[in-house]
Amino acid sequence: MKPAPFQYVAARTIEQALQLKAEHGDEARFLAGGQSLVPTMNFRLTQPAMLIDINPLHELAGLGNGPAVRLRIGALTRYRSLERDPATARHLPLIAEALPLIAHPQIRNRGTIGGNLAHADPASEMPAIVLTLGGRLRARSAKGERWIDAADFFVGALTTALEPDEMLMEVELPKAPPRSGACFMEMSRRRGDFAIIGVACIVRLDEAGRCAEARIGLCNAGDGPVFAARASASLTGRTVGSVEIGEAAKLVQSDIDPGGSIHASKEFQRHIAGVLTTRALARANERARGAA
Amino acid sequence: MSTQMHAITVTVNGKQYSRQVEGRLLLSDFLRHDLLLAGTHVGCEHGVCGACTVIFDGAPVRSCLMFAAQTDGHRIETVEGLAADRDHLHPLQQAMRDCHGLQCGYCTPGILMTMKVFLEDNPNPDEAQIREALSGNLCRCTGYQHIVEAVQLAAERMRK
Ligand SMILES: Cc1cc2nc3c(=O)[nH]c(=O)nc-3n(C[C@H](O)[C@H](O)[C@H](O)COP(=O)(O)OP(=O)(O)OC[C@H]3O[C@@H](n4cnc5c(N)ncnc54)[C@H](O)[C@@H]3O)c2cc1C
Ligand code: FES
Ligand code: FES
User: Fold this and answer.
1) What CATH architecture does domain B5-81 belong to?
2) Any residues with CB less than 8 A from the CB of A63 and at least 6 apart, and which?
3) pTM for the full model?
4) Using an 8 Å Cβ cutoff, are A206 and A119 in contact?
5) For the segment A257-270, what is each residue's pLDDT rounded down to a tens digit?
6) Which of A4, A130, B87, B108 is deepest in the core (most CB within 10 A)?
7) What CATH fold (topology level) applies to the domain B91-159?
8) Which one of B4, B49, B65, B118 makes the best mutation probe of the A interface by having the most chain A beta carbons within 10 Å?
9) Are A208 and A240 in the same domain?
């Protein structure tokens, strides 16, 4: 259980890191928090020829304002700094609620949002949240940079739209708007384990208290994070009560394709998705009313 | 592949060490085999058990998920640095002893390093907070009850 030999390079600048990635492509990996990458290297499931350690690049970390009502989170921002930043609870309540459910405190001290999104584990909370929020991600290579919508970024299990020479620089997310409420819930076997199913819900109300927009996303419900488009759209224009929530939960159940495992069959996952959608939607709706 | 070595200077428990390390050397193995600080235990080597937890620049982390080469210029605390000397245990160690918070002791160093920082951040935690903070450390022996009691006792003594 020791990693195979590789060349270690502590990046001095973003340009140098991008240059190395351009030269070595898939043979090289960026090392962020190491909390997903190093376990697989210890088991020799991953044997990169080179690790480009981006931890020295402090300019990649931090939470700041984007254009208009959006926030930008640097790729190297650790879960722990997000947990401690009051802006997370104020503007990104979905993330604030999910953070304590991601792994354990010691993992959150190292793990980064960029590493998590680039890793794109379908069971992971953050990709589902970024997709539900309709965020976008900035990728950069030695040749230039581009923005990628979350809906295009997550391609499948452990697969993203990032090219072999690209680094994820930051993610941009909308701040929670007025008259809105959010809720993240998941079920896992033990504290800190990956979710059997996780559900992210946002409800925004109009002046009359009807649903102006709802967004529902799930983790561990398919090949990648899932945005439940039909269920989300079913609530628009309606006064959200138990009937509407029940209908949305049914749509979620028919829209997802969970993989099943020895711990939870597909049927059980689908059942839990319905239960959690019902609860999380009701809570998000209550919170939106409280904020109205 | 030729093994390239990296020169590092790292402060462990207040003492500076300069060594040459291979890129793939895990921090846990560096501490145990190179510095002969074998108090840091290795259980699973994939981040799950918490036995290898050390304090890196003030934050508890898994030493099995970091490379020694990453620690150049950084500060690490291990269980060996907790007690002032043989006769003066850290309040957490003393409380673990008083409350029977360990049996085989395999998990104990990781728990101590995790709880040291936890109590600095939360001097007066309730039981639920302690259990939450303990969630990243597996113990196969105690059933956790006595560990929770030990952390409560240590917190009480440290507040005085
Ligand atoms: C015990 C344990 C429990 C866990 N539980 C959970 C959980 O419940 N939920 C959850 O979501 N996660 C969980 N994780 C994983 C954790 O969230 C990781 O921190 C995260 O998935 C990866 O982030 P990282 O910064 O550690 O990335 P790394 O491990 O450093 O990198 C992951 C991958 O992303 C690439 N990469 C990193 N940064 C960039 C970048 N800027 N641009 C392009 N590519 C990049 C790397 O090359 C690598 O392929 C757990 C991990 C452990 C060890
Ligand atoms: S040995 Fe590091 S967490 Fe188990
Ligand atoms: S005392 Fe034996 S594992 Fe905790």
Assistant:
1) Roll (3.10)
2) A71, A72, A73, A74, A77, A81, A82, A85, A87, A88
3) 0.97
4) no
5) 999 999 999 999 99
6) A130
7) DNA polymerase; domain 1 (1.10.150)
8) B65
9) yes
